[in-house]
């Protein structure tokens, strides 16, 4: 029989703790004196103070073992948006999240209540994209309705996931939940934004600006996202206004999408995009390509660079207000955008032009 571990307010679990955001979160938690149980499908590093539990989110028993002795859970596991695999997103983001909620309940209602846990706290990493339908959002607040026609399976299942977690918040039954909605996370070790950008540049496809280039977007340095998660966890009490609510966490410095891309590219020694293409033309083409890839999927597998979601992200305004987080949990970004870009560029020497 597994040994029971007594819970402590400085013990927590990070589901998805091997990933980009998860690992930054784990490192910050360790620095704040927490011990951390990481649950992930893969183990990508070792650190003192961290116990790894390798397993699939949908495996109840494996998850329960990882959550033993823990009364604070961060859930930031998800398949990468680029996978575009409907069944995988449904299984991990929806079924997997249901499993997390069930196991949190189980820990709380542990028969002999040996754990004497006052409350189980669950902080979900959602996404600001849950309200994004491919059209402009300027200073969007959390009361915007969920996207009625989500632009991809990732967004569709992130919406369901967030709804499940917020609905499960139940002060009487000791489960307190909150959802953090970051947008455009970037920083050292990010496997998506900078690598995709550099790969596109190396293939000579970063010459064009989609639209007139004036669209404002939130890019959020990873430390600020981590800060938002920890503030939420430490504010989560039955009497707190944050219970059962969603919070935008951004750098609070909207920037032109194409200026941000150019700063990263130029910082790494590549040319900035210069020529303009009409947004509707590129979006239409991306839709055609996506349909074609669906039709041909049984015969050939090809992944278009220009997916409708990517084109929409690159050509529309999408920036969000984080005044709710400022008001309810005293959130303020800890790293400015310029500094974040510099630290990010410096962390990718291997992706520099000519390296
Ligand atoms: N990056 C961004 O810009 C944004 C991210 N988010 C959200 O933040 C969270 C973290 O994202 P990010 O750090 O970028 O993503 P990563 O892919 O780097 O991290 C997610 C981690 O979860 C793991 N994982 C995937 N499936 C399972 C599973 N079935 N069981 C256990 N672990 C699993 C992944 O493993 P593997 O790599 O092997 O799949 C990976 O280690 C996600 O929920 C994402 O939706 C929200 C807004 C913006
Ligand atoms: C703000 C936000 C939600 C960013 C998300 C990160 C990624 C979705 C972007 C990171 C690199 C971007 C990128 C493009 C689209 C959006 C990203 C994948 C393009 C494919 C857009 C069209 C181009 O001209 C090339 C771009 C390469 C980089």
UniProtKB/TrEMBL annotation:
Top class in the EC scheme: oxidoreductase
One annotated GO molecular function: 3-beta-hydroxysteroid dehydrogenase [NAD(P)+]/C4-decarboxylase activity
GO cellular component: endoplasmic reticulum membrane; lipid droplet
Domain 3-beta hydroxysteroid dehydrogenase/isomerase: 13-274
Record bears the keyword Amino-acid biosynthesis: no
Catalysed reactions, semicolon-separated: 4beta-methylzymosterol-4alpha-carboxylate + NADP(+) = 3-dehydro-4-methylzymosterol + CO2 + NADPH; 4alpha-carboxy-5alpha-cholest-8-ene-3beta-ol + NADP(+) = 5alpha-cholest-8-en-3-one + CO2 + NADPH; a 3beta-hydroxysteroid-4alpha-carboxylate + NADP(+) = a 3-oxosteroid + CO2 + NADPH; 4alpha-carboxy-4beta-methyl-5alpha-cholest-8-en-3beta-ol + NADP(+) = 4alpha-methyl-5alpha-cholest-8-en-3-one + CO2 + NADPH
Pfam families per record: 3Beta_HSD
Entry EC no(s): 1.1.1.170
Residue stretches spanning the membrane: 281-300
Pathway: Steroid biosynthesis; zymosterol biosynthesis; zymosterol from lanosterol: step 4/6
Keywords: Acetylation, Cholesterol biosynthesis, Cholesterol metabolism, Endoplasmic reticulum, Lipid biosynthesis, Lipid droplet, Lipid metabolism, Membrane, NAD, Oxidoreductase, Steroid biosynthesis, Steroid metabolism, Sterol biosynthesis, Sterol metabolism, Transmembrane, Transmembrane helix
Localization, UniProt: Endoplasmic reticulum membrane; Lipid droplet
Membrane topology designation: Single-pass membrane protein
Chief location: endoplasmic reticulum
Biological process according to GO: cholesterol biosynthetic process
Family membership: Belongs to the 3-beta-HSD family.
Quaternary data: Homodimer.
Name this protein carries in UniProt: Sterol-4-alpha-carboxylate 3-dehydrogenase, decarboxylating
Organism: Oncorhynchus kisutch
């Amino acid at each position: 029989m597994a040994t029971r571990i007594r819970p402590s307010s400085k013990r927590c679990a990070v589901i998805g703790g091997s990933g980009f955001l998860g690992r930054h979160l784990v490192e910050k938690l360790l620095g704040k004196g927490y011990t951390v149980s990481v649950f992930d499908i893969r183990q990508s590093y070792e650190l003192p103070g961290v116990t790894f539990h390798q397993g699939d989110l949908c495996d109840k028993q494996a998850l329960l073992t990882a959550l033993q002795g823990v009364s604070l859970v961060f859930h930031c596991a998800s398949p990468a948006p680029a996978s575009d695999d409907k069944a995988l997103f449904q299984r991990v983001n929806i079924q997997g999240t249901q499993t997390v909620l069930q196991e949190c309940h189980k820990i709380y209602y542990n028969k002999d209540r040996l754990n004497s846990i006052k409350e189980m706290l669950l902080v979900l990493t959602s996404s600001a994209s849950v309200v994004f339908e491919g059209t402009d959002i300027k200073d969007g607040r959390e009361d915007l309705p969920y996207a009625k026609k989500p632009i991809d399976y990732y967004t569709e299942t992130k919406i369901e996931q967030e709804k499940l977690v917020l609905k499960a918040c139940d002060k009487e039954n000791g489960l307190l939940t909150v959802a953090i909605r970051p947008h455009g996370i970037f920083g050292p070790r990010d496997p998506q934004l900078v690598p995709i950008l550099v790969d596109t540049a190396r293939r000579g496809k970063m010459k064009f600006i989609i639209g007139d280039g004036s669209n404002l977007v939130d890019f959020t340095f990873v430390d600020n996202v981590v800060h938002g998660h920890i503030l939420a966890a430490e504010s989560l009490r039955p009497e707190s206004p944050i219970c059962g609510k969603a919070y935008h966490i951004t750098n609070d410095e909207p920037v032109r999408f194409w200026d941000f891309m150019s700063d990263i590219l130029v910082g790494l020694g590549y040319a900035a995009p210069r020529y303009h293409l009409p947004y509707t033309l590129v979006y239409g083409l991306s839709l055609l390509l996506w349909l074609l890839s669906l039709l041909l999927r049984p015969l050939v597998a090809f992944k278009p660079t220009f997916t409708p979601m990517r084109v929409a992200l690159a050509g529309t305004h999408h920036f969000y207000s984080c005044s709710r987080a400022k008001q309810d949990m005293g959130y303020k970004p800890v790293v400015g955008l310029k500094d974040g870009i510099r630290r990010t560029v410096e962390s990718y020497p291997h992706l520099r032009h000519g390296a």
